[in-house]
Design goal:
The complex is a heterotetramer, with two copies of chain A and two copies of chain C. Chain A has three domains: 3-7 and 22-145, Alpha-Beta Plaits, CATH 3.30.70.2500; 161-227 and 296-391, 2-Layer Sandwich (Sulfite Reductase Hemoprotein, domain 1), CATH 3.30.413; 231-291, 2-Layer Sandwich (Alpha-Beta Plaits). Chain A contains 14 helices and 14 strands. Chain A has helices at residues 7-10, 20-30, 32-47, 99-112, 133-145, 176-186, 188-192, 214-217, 234-242, 247-250, 281-285, 329-345, 352-359, 361-368, and strands at residues 67-68, 85-89, 96-98, 116-119, 126-131, 161-162, 202-205, 220-226, 231-232, 260-263, 268-271, 290-291, 296-302, 316-322. Chain A has a five-stranded mixed beta sheet. In chain A, a hairpin with a 4-residue loop joins β10 and β11 (268-271). In chain A, α2 (20-30) packs antiparallel against α3 (32-47) and α4 (99-112) runs antiparallel to α5 (133-145). Chain A starts with 6 loop residues before the first helix and ends in a 28-residue tail after the last helix. By secondary structure, chain C is an alpha+beta fold. Chain C has three domains: 11-105, 2-Layer Sandwich (Alpha-Beta Plaits), CATH 3.30.70; 121-187 and 249-344, Sulfite Reductase Hemoprotein, domain 1 (2-Layer Sandwich), CATH 3.30.413; 191-245, 2-Layer Sandwich (Alpha-Beta Plaits), CATH 3.30.70.20. The longest helix of chain C has 17 residues, at 136-152. Classes of the chains: A alpha+beta, C alpha+beta. Chains in contact: A-B, A-C, A-D, B-C, B-D, C-D. The interface between B and D is large, with 55 and 54 residues. β4 (116-119) of chain A pairs antiparallel with β4 (57-59) of chain D, so a sheet runs across the interface. The structure holds siroheme (4 copies) and iron/sulfur cluster (SF4) (8 copies). The site of one iron/sulfur cluster (SF4) has 15 residues of chain A, from α11. One iron/sulfur cluster binds next to α11 of chain B.
Chain lengths: 396, 396, 353, 353
Amino acid sequence: MDDRETPLLDELEEGDWPSFVAELKRAAEKSAMSADLLRQIERSYADNTGHWKRGGIVGVRGYGGGVVGRYSAMPEEFPGVKEFHTLRVNEPAGFYYTTEKLRELCDVWDKYGSGLLNLHGSTGDIILLGTTTENLQPCFDALGEIGFDLGGSGSAMRTLSCCVGQSRCEHACIDTMDVTHDLTMNFQMEIHRPAFPYKFKIKVSGCPNDCAAASARSDLAIIGVWRDAIEIDQQGVAEYVDEGFDLFNRVIRRCPTWALDWDAEEKRLKLTSEDCVHCMHCINEMPKALRVGQERGAAVLIGGKAPVVKGAMIGWVLVPFMRLEPPYQELKDLIVQVTEFWAEHGKNRERLAELIDRLGMPAFLEGIGVEPCPQMVDAPRSNPYLFWREEEVKHA
Amino acid sequence: MDDRETPLLDELEEGDWPSFVAELKRAAEKSAMSADLLRQIERSYADNTGHWKRGGIVGVRGYGGGVVGRYSAMPEEFPGVKEFHTLRVNEPAGFYYTTEKLRELCDVWDKYGSGLLNLHGSTGDIILLGTTTENLQPCFDALGEIGFDLGGSGSAMRTLSCCVGQSRCEHACIDTMDVTHDLTMNFQMEIHRPAFPYKFKIKVSGCPNDCAAASARSDLAIIGVWRDAIEIDQQGVAEYVDEGFDLFNRVIRRCPTWALDWDAEEKRLKLTSEDCVHCMHCINEMPKALRVGQERGAAVLIGGKAPVVKGAMIGWVLVPFMRLEPPYQELKDLIVQVTEFWAEHGKNRERLAELIDRLGMPAFLEGIGVEPCPQMVDAPRSNPYLFWREEEVKHA
Amino acid sequence: MPKTDFGPPDYREMIPPIVRENYGKWRYHRIPRPGVLEHVSETGDVLSSVRVASPRLVSTDFVREICEIADKYCGGHLRFTTRHNIEFLVSDREKLQPLLDELEGRGYLIGGVGRAISNVVHTQGWIHCKSAVTDASGLVKSIMDELHDYYTGKKPVPAKLRIAVACCVNMCGACHCSDIAVVGIHRRVPRVNDDVVSKSCEIPSTIASCPTGAIRPNPKLKSITIAPEKCMYCGNCAAVCPAIDVMDPDTDGVSIWVGGKLSNARTTPKFSRLAIPYLPNHPPRWPEVTEAVKNLVEVWRQRAKPGERMGEWIERIGWERFFQITGIPFTEKHIDDFTHATTTFRSSMQFRI
Amino acid sequence: MPKTDFGPPDYREMIPPIVRENYGKWRYHRIPRPGVLEHVSETGDVLSSVRVASPRLVSTDFVREICEIADKYCGGHLRFTTRHNIEFLVSDREKLQPLLDELEGRGYLIGGVGRAISNVVHTQGWIHCKSAVTDASGLVKSIMDELHDYYTGKKPVPAKLRIAVACCVNMCGACHCSDIAVVGIHRRVPRVNDDVVSKSCEIPSTIASCPTGAIRPNPKLKSITIAPEKCMYCGNCAAVCPAIDVMDPDTDGVSIWVGGKLSNARTTPKFSRLAIPYLPNHPPRWPEVTEAVKNLVEVWRQRAKPGERMGEWIERIGWERFFQITGIPFTEKHIDDFTHATTTFRSSMQFRI
Ligand code: SRM
Ligand code: SRM
Ligand code: SRM
Ligand code: SRM
Ligand code: SF4
Ligand code: SF4
Ligand code: SF4
Ligand code: SF4
Ligand code: SF4
Ligand code: SF4
Ligand code: SF4
Ligand code: SF4
């Protein structure tokens, strides 16, 4: 391909950060689709606007989602991207791959698609970026051969994702990868056949550091936590201090509840465990000396989402603590309860958080049979506008 | 009066706390109205409900408010309280009295009313509790003779009130009593002739301790503050410390912004003044050593109110700092701007805060001609739903 | 024409000479004993203020009595505080002890200063308000008969504690920002007298008065209809339209709210939050309410750090533990479901389990 | 019937042996050099993870290249992070330095670990999304070309800093909780093609799609009308109804948001807040945006305390000073006027003057 065709994009080949334009060009060398994509993007850079059409539902047999249909708005000029659909391919939990698997994936994608992909999409899928309607089914079949299934799209449960968890992290209170894989297998129907009012996302983080960014972008976030005391290796703490670690300013003062204190004489870190709110900070700062407790499980937060329509939400505590052991039945039951309530009461395109906002948390809790608890709120209500049930109000 | 008539209320004569029942009885000895009041209240205690009727506008000549009409719902049984209106009498700023003035007031009230009063009502008025329609005008005339005017009621500017301020408090950044008196005199028309969409309250506190509870219950709160550094008498601080005052735990650690530090060697309290948010805590704890700064003025907060309709509000910062010197022109102009905007756009029974909530703060600020500033918010907006004016958006 | 708009007495004529002379010159204060403030001026003058409890609802005889005392010890001047206490202002040091003695002799309670429970800010109740669900004065008397030792300083408390009582959710006062607020509530949907509505109510403003949009027009009857599932019994419609009756002695009651504050000291002002949704309305002594308030005060008093107000203490230990320690059940009623409810939901992993 | 619902590859078959053997046994970690994590297991095993920047949008050749490297040094295993970085997992200590050398030789950027700016989470942009106001990939490249020294650790930063870029307010990602978020916005009321509406749009759901209730039915045309004064150009109606066009190359632009976070460490998760309402959309290098982001990073970097994230720093110094220091003008656009606006207004005297 002639460089002069893309003077604007060429500028983005300069600089030290890895260049997506270089990648587009690499793909363009092998694929006419990608070559036309490059040209269309150059046009977008010139016109200051995208050139994709809206609408158009495409898919593969037996599935209701997993493919995002896309058509160029300028098919005459850029025939290679006349049809340019993406396949959302469910990633293995934790984003681990053998090189063998990845190579197989590349081979399939070079054969049936643009040769361009995202590792990964924001939800967690492998995004195979651009193929024709015709190629969708054979591509999917070939993916199946090598063990890759589609993820979610549309009004479905979406592809789950998680942090690295116990596979490589000392803080993990739950086996994030196993929970993710198990739920994914359990909810294949819900993932592949959109039947909800809108999208429903689940993400799993192993501890309150939330490395999966679950609480911001999951309708249901599962976040590991412990409920006994932090394990303190006093020897280890003393070593930090002896090495000049500024314990007071780096840890004690920054504990959100002042749960820690340093006994300089006894060289002991004192923890008032009932004050600890599991923020992780002290453990993060002194991983060699402090560890999460032994009574481990997870909290379930609901309602995290992006701004549209009612505003962005960060997940709300629904269950403060739940033990998580395979087969994760309690968790699965809860997810079913929640999604069924939502499926029944939610309006079209109404996210879970928006439904709860509309009906009120008390009504939602009653609907799914979860008992209220103070962990659900930062503080009780301040307005005197409370409801009473007929049966609560005894009348003479 | 026979004790056995009020067995329930009699129980409230027991105990150490001063008894309102004792007061009712004292008044009942002199006044038939009060005697019937006592009986009606006893009935309320027996029936578990009030016995006042709703409705009924009464007043005095030339005024639209200042009287709250009240009629017994059981006039046959308690004829003395058939009509039992209260006069709201504007208190002198700071609630100071000469005994002479108070005695004159008592004389008038014994003559024309029940002999019962509140010192004071929640808004700040002297509440003369209970007289007949007939007696209203003569009572008002007699009050006028001794220099007491009515306060506000209904959809009017309400009686102002304030903390003790410079008259007896070392923290006062403004002359609360003078501001209150001056505004009261300036807004007589607005106080006495209801012409607003709803009530409008103004209260004045001399510093952020807010001893007038202004920010919770004033549509417009004026609260004294300074903007240079706190004055520190290092000698004084050292004395506190030498006397065993736990400076770290009582002050340094509790400063909301950690603006203070103690230099143990130099025995100096170090203040990072740009971090001070004028919370008053350190000054409150060490009044002998610390003082508010010299550049003094007031902030204006708007929208404080009780729960009904849209929920309770604590006043919002409108002007972070304004110098306040007689004749307080800038403040008066602001009050006029605010009330005029509200009078124009507010619906019936819509408090200022509710109007602003409905129209949006940006629209309100534009309407009253006040520039936005970051002190107005805890944080900028988090939703991407912002408006642009035609003229801001240049279009090719 | 009658004389109008002459305004209140000028404060300059009400203040005692020591205040006039030291106006704006006060340097610092101390609390020599419970109930007494000693303000020192840069002129060297010292003003002692003796704070005394008042029932707020008083007779002219009561006023004459305190005037008499003020004449004797305070040169004929006195003031009231923003919480309805009386303050005797003593400029002559010699007169302080005799004043205290006389006040004590007469049975006045001296206190409310510094780290103490001060007077209760309250409302009219059955004494004068048509909207009163309960009697404010009676509740105050019942509560303070139990708590006066915290007023007089006989028993110390960790910090200022402000109690407020309101006889309905209009909350005439600053209830909504009190350490402890006692508020009368209804629990039954108001009854509508359709005939009266059609005659004497403005229907649009009645509809607009409902915070939760529970009221719809009923064109057939020229009246309105209240959707029971949307009504939370605030009574605002009844305030606007006399044909609506929300009172019900059988089901009305009292709710308790905690943790509000107004000062900006340390923490920003806070709203009071629901602790107990309902207690029965039991005059003349309201034993359930009195007990509940006492429990709250005791729990706080025994656990809070010095200088820590109710709400600050609760926020430090967490609402989870507050409910646990007080033994108050946490119910769905504690979870907000009004306009800004979602902003009160816990959006973090920071909680106690 | 085709094979369906077989799910993703089982992670157990993807993880390297060292991970399998030490699963759940990791004891602690350290950061021996920028871009490298060393996890120590209770078995004594040590796993070194080398983190490398990826453009996320890659070609199969790129993937083959990293596979080749992983074969050489990592026994044929690798992973990606939740922020789209590549992680090479080295169990054989001998291979660490050679791997680092090869990566550097090939021009890969090693970094993003610990107190660093990590990869930018971003969205499709003009590459694939019909809703894109701007190009996410181009913005990321332009921004990170300026900031890569903070990725590689050549220049230190006080704490983790997470940048996100979204091409429209749908914010596919966690933009709304990022230290710095760059978001494409419209500023013009959408144009409605009435003919198409009447044919191909579901009017009730179009009306319901509008967050601010700006859309009303237009029965005459069997279409809808947008009230311009209520529309804030979110484009959600255009997502629901293809007859509505919100794109406008002339007035569309980019906004910048700051101070969000998601971890619960120290402070609870925070939303990003509006810093700069509009900057022009200037491909291919977006100089205004790049400059603004750099300014924000620099200002924070130079002033924050160690370990203090952007939002924590801003909250410590106060938004007043943030605007002053950054030189960003504070305008009425920064003041919320959406549903919960009043909860963001300052209800206290605690501010800097
Ligand atoms: C591909 C992806 C962006 C990316 O480059 O990574 C993406 C792309 C689109 N998102 Fe998204 N979203 C993607 C993750 C997200 C996330 C993040 C997440 O899932 O963790 C969010 C925020 C979290 C959330 O769901 O709230 C997100 C919030 C949205 C929204 C706003 C939803 C809301 O309730 O606020 C929309 C609007 C809509 O649904 O109409 C949307 C809609 C879209 C559509 C389908 C718009 C459209 O109708 O054309 C985009 C298709 C682009 C395309 O042509 O490929 N996308 N979208 C992400 C999916 C990849 C994957 O499967 O791994
Ligand atoms: C007398 C007083 C209570 C007291 O015992 O001290 C009082 C008594 C009444 N208030 Fe009040 N309010 C009194 C101070 C307050 C305060 C406190 C204040 O002003 O500092 C508030 C809270 C602050 C505020 O205004 O928001 C207050 C909030 C209300 C409300 C709720 C307004 C709202 O917007 O939420 C109402 C309802 C109404 O206006 O219909 C109300 C209505 C009433 C009415 C007029 C109810 C009625 O229509 O019958 C009460 C008349 C009782 C009577 O028969 O005397 N009163 N009212 C206070 C006035 C005394 C004075 O003038 O000094
Ligand atoms: C007399 C009075 C002003 C008046 O014009 O009447 C007053 C007077 C003083 N206040 Fe106050 N405050 C008065 C009502 C208030 C109120 C309003 C209220 O309670 O309704 C508040 C806000 C209450 C709240 O936050 O909810 C108030 C919050 C304070 C504070 C902050 C306390 C805190 O730590 O939160 C201080 C500072 C302190 O006590 O250290 C203070 C300090 C003071 C000082 C020490 C100021 C001084 O140097 O003179 C005065 C004596 C305090 C004392 O009584 O312990 N004053 N003070 C009011 C007495 C009411 C009463 O009879 O009890
Ligand atoms: C690899 C990864 C998980 C994964 O499954 O991929 C991961 C891995 C680790 N995270 Fe994380 N975090 C990862 C995304 C996140 C995210 C999500 C995100 O950025 O989108 C967050 C939340 C971000 C936020 O708060 O906005 C996150 C917040 C943390 C924190 C809290 C930092 C803080 O003080 O706020 C820690 C603790 C620390 O760094 O001290 C942490 C700590 C760690 C540790 C040290 C845990 C451990 O002991 O292994 C890991 C190495 C940290 C590092 O890179 O400095 N991780 N971490 C993710 C790497 C992303 C990347 O390529 O940069
Ligand atoms: S969320 Fe916790 S368990 Fe998961 S990778 Fe991050 S620090 Fe480790
Ligand atoms: S985890 Fe957080 S809350 Fe708990 S002790 Fe450590 S720093 Fe404090
Ligand atoms: S508000 Fe301030 S100035 Fe007024 S009395 Fe209280 S402490 Fe003194
Ligand atoms: S007034 Fe408050 S904010 Fe200012 S230094 Fe003192 S304690 Fe800190
Ligand atoms: S709180 Fe309610 S009942 Fe009590 S005085 Fe105020 S309006 Fe009347
Ligand atoms: S009582 Fe309150 S909630 Fe019920 S209908 Fe009347 S105004 Fe509405
Ligand atoms: S942020 Fe908007 S434009 Fe970008 S991918 Fe998501 S939906 Fe499309
Ligand atoms: S662009 Fe957004 S705000 Fe404007 S009409 Fe459409 S949905 Fe409503």
